[in-house]
Amino acid sequence: MRYSEEYRDPQIAHALADRIARDTTKRWVLMEVCGGQTHTLMRYGIGDLLPDSIELVHGPGCPVCVTPFELIDQAIDIGGRTGVIFASYGDMLRVPGSRADLLNVRACGGDVRVVYSPLDALGIARENPERQVVFFAVGFETTAPANAMAVWQAQREGIANFSLLVSHVLVPPAMRLILSSPANRVQGFIGPGHVCAIMGLGEYRALAEEFHVPIVIGGFEPLDLLEAISMLVAQLEEGRAEVENQYSRSVEGEGNLVAQKVMREVFTVSDRKWRGIGEIRESGLALRKEYSAHDAERLFNLVPLQMEEPRECISALVLQGLKKPGECSAFGKRCTPLNPLGAPMVSTEGACAAWYQYKRHA
Amino acid sequence: MPETTHANGLFLCPAPLNAGERIVIGHGSGGRLSANLLRDLFLPLFSNPVLDRLDDQAVVELGGVRLAFTTDSFVVKPLFFPGGDIGSLAVHGTINDLAMGGAMPAYLSAAFIVEEGFPIETLREIAASMGSAAAAAGVAIVTGDTKVVERGKGDGVFINTTGIGLVPEDINLSANQAQAGDAVILSGTIGDHGMAIMSTRAGLEFETTIVSDSAPLHRLVADILKASRGIRCFRDPTRGGLSAALNEIAGQSRVSIEVEEKRIPIRQQVRAVCELLGLDPLYVANEGKLVAVVAPECAEDVRAAMRRNPLGRNANIIGTVGDDVAGLVTVRTTFGSSRIVDLLPGEQLPRIC
Lengths: 362, 353
What we know:
Number of helices of chain A: 15
Shape of chain A: globular
Radius of gyration of chain B: 21 Å
Structural class of chain A: alpha/beta
CATH superfamily of the largest domain in chain B: PurM-like C-terminal domain
Largest interface: A-B, 71 and 49 residues
Low-confidence stretches of chain A: none
Number of strands of chain B: 14
Strand content of chain B: 15-25%
Strand content of chain A: 15-25%
Oligomer: heterodimer
Mean pLDDT of chain A: 91
CATH class of the largest domain in chain A: Alpha Beta
Low-confidence stretches of chain B: 1-20
Radius of gyration of chain A: 20 Å
Order of helices and strands of chain A: HEHEHHEHEHEHEHEHHEHEHEEHHH
Structural class of chain B: alpha+beta
Order of helices and strands of chain B: HEEEEHEHEEEHHEHEHEHEEE
CATH class of the largest domain in chain B: Alpha Beta
Shape of chain B: globular
Helix content of chain B: 25-40%
Number of domains of chain B: 2
Number of strands of chain A: 11
CATH superfamily of the largest domain in chain A: HypD, alpha/beta domain 2
CATH topology of the largest domain in chain B: Phosphoribosyl-aminoimidazole Synthetase, Chain A, domain 2
């Protein structure tokens, strides 16, 4: 397949792995921020190619994993109401709330649909003017512009029956939280390639400077990740702490200015709760007042719920890179993809599910 | 979820929504949920030595004759798709379940559950397709049934077919017969049927030329059986894809299976669409492919026999049976590392990013 097979060449992979082994003289702990990167690392068994002195820990960048219980419960609440079509990306359907998931809602007669884009959901709203169409707007800065665009279009066309249940989170505040923790072990980051394609490198330069930590913005193919790891090792060994861009075929310094503009037009930065981690100040997005007619939380009079996570679940520690999934006492026993205790076991991008899928017997 | 109805009086699903208490789509996906439903609900209630083998077909002796017997229901949407339709699929699917037991299919039944308001002309088109699929495969549809459900209580038309066929005396195939050292052979490319269906569904704004592989496999099976005596079992990787077929064989034979990623044939377009949608072709359905587990010394003969038949022209030896961990299926990646290929919990859900 053109434009992707080139980045999966086993020979180049082994050459990069050799270079990493040659360059590494100390132990280094690296974190890949994105769930998509975790998935590729597991899928290709890249950890097996690296020297033992490189430890990879999986970051919080799986949108499915960090969406809090309360929001899933709100989604389930809305999705079960008559007159509502609830549209979502596929893998949100199996994320457990406190008592159920959206697949169960569908089994009980709720109209829950899988879409590939918020604009598809907007199309459903256009075709079903008598029903309320709610799109579950999850994700990081990557999915935010398209969601903003859908709301902006709905407002412009006067499609009043379209709304978003917003659960947008931002990457830099989560990285800041990890770096600020006294227990932090992460010494270098593979930065989120697609997020930076939207947002540019500015926020990451500030983090690298403030915490003296190298950040290499990386892509999602195996060679991207190996090259990013190699660049990180070189920085660490030389004592540098800079932002470098491995994913230059997609990421430019300023990011996508048009996307940023529509995001700013529709969303404002807000405090957000992260599943397993808790509330992080100014770590997410909410709809601006001007667009509140498309805010599902307001439309459906949702009351903020407080939920407790299952005690045994250590997803907070996993998402911050402080523990590996295999170190959890419930892992693979009381917590499996079929009966997940915590969200990282749900999405195939989630650190626990990826670990379960690819490494369980290793 | 709070157990109250809302202040505005809107309906809220009143049933307790714990996973497992109601049927969800995943129970029909051929993954872990399907396997659990079978194990926990049906098997204890129906248990007998024939059923407990859990093969694609039951092989029974009746009046001194060995019969293969199977049934399958078809609920595909859309009803017509590139490379076939619900009618031809209903014929091929049941023929293939018989063929996987080494049987020569002879007779089929056809039962229709039709929704009120369904166009008779469309039903005629589907029945015509069934008729010609059966004729081409050399089987006869000899009995049937039609039921009509109220509008909204069905989805156009559902079809059930049941089939019987004769099992030659010296043929004894079962998914519990794989042994360490055996070769695993796949008859062709994977993922074509599932992706042909998926790329016709609403919501995808691109066009592909992917065509379903729906085809009857009994003649390919007969060719293979003629070429070799070392066949342990066949499976057709339908729901749940190649992963489910391999996991079933590994589980029932209490062996491990390792396949090599680079030896599994996948069409470029299928690979590309899977990638775009965040799906893994190992879990995508096929309707005209089979997996054969064969004694190692027969592997080359079997592959050659498959390749002589147009339905097996892309056949490849994809892996071997081992005795590491009973029930474990792994794939050796192009990078030389190994990963587990487990049954999916339920239906495969597209990833967000």
